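Two proteins follow. First one:
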Amino acid sequence: MTDRITSWHSAPSKPAFTPPPGAVDAHCHVFGPMAEFPFSPKAKYLPEDAGPDMLFALRDHLGFSRNVIVQASCHGTDNAATLNGIALSGGKARGVAVVDPDISAEELADLHAKGMRGVRFNFLKRLVDNAPKDKFLDLAARLPEGWHVVIYFEADILEELRPFIAAIPVPVVVDHMGRPDVSQGPDGEDLKAFRRLLESREDIWFKPTCPDRLDASGDPWNDFAAAIAPLVADYQDRVIWGTDWPHPNMETNIPDDGHIVDMIPRIAPTAELQQKLLVTNPMRLYWPEEL
């Protein structure tokens, strides 16, 4: 039995920044609880339980109103734990599923009814064994109305993925900006390449998230702030933000979630930008019927 990983801060600080009313943490996860929702036998990591009760307590502590729960790779294509989180949220959570590409229309409709609004395609080889582009495109063409595709990859495969991304027939949301090297600065090759992707179609969105993963300089992640603020300003109608709690696989250098939230005014310095990043944009994707 592999040792189970704790990847989250046991007592995160209260952020200095106060999110605007209705703010959405649009990228977070739940793990288990394992006794009720076992992890996938193919999981590359085995986390401690981080269930909906912990997530919603953190949401309130950090000053957020809603969550978008993204299916974690440790649960494979069994979305039961994520659906449980949505069900327990009292309407304050929606989700992004990971599914078998051969999923039926009926199963997709059931996921929609239970609060899912997108599917995630993961291209990180250390997390998934297989990412069949042709089957992913077939699935993307069969998604319920209003759904989008969330895609996770690292910067070194962006160019090879561009034809695949161009062929996705629904809006695309890129997790963590495709993990650019932020030490290169705002004009570095990785962010230039990412800007070219954003320019290629107007319905590619992104999450300017995970300074703890992307900035080797450490907290307060100054390289991240300097590199990413111009990107947020230039594409402010296509950004959504999240904590990434409970920070899968971050058992070393575990970030303080209060400090993660305090990155927001450094990459979105005006009230108008903060409103778009945290309220307007995620509501357009996940709760459009409320707008």
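Second one, unrelated to the first:
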Amino acid sequence: MPSTHDFGFPMQSLDWASWVPVLDLDKATPDEIKVLEESHPKAKENPYYLLLVQEAEVLRQRSKLFNTIMYGPRGASRAERELAATAESRLNGCPYCASVHALRYVQMKGDPALMARLMKDGVETPMEARPRAIVDFAVKLAATPSAATEADVARLREQGLEDAQILDIAMSVAMFANANRLMQTLGEAVMPKDAA
């Protein structure tokens, strides 16, 4: 179903509207409530989670995977994981995910100008060498995973990333390559009702 809202990739929080029925919280089972509470602090009011929790065990495993990839205490900084997720989401045309990760990147890295350019102009926008290497790697993985080569990994290493950091970047991209496609199949990003 095509989107009825064409507002580009704004640097602001967006809402998401499901095209299919979501769980009525009043009819939720105890396990569904538990999975929502385990998944995200605002999951019980988020239509995406209320849709996915209708397969509670699938959401439970998805949330564990998501939280480990994005919040785990491994190699890559949270900011660089968010940069990779933003680039991947921008390439795949998901304004909801792109805005979430762009805003988180700004909170952590404090570089609103870079994110504004990435959102407005796309993944080719100019940037410094280290974020450029991350964005280029993310874009290749998102579009055609086999296009990312040893040369791309070597480029990341030249920018000071260790293998554990590169793995985190790759997992962030993989997570959101799946999430973007799922979100855009099941619903669409919408402007919040209170947006000017």
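SUMMARY FIELD: The two ends are 26 Å apart (CA to CA). The beta strands are 15-18, 187-190.
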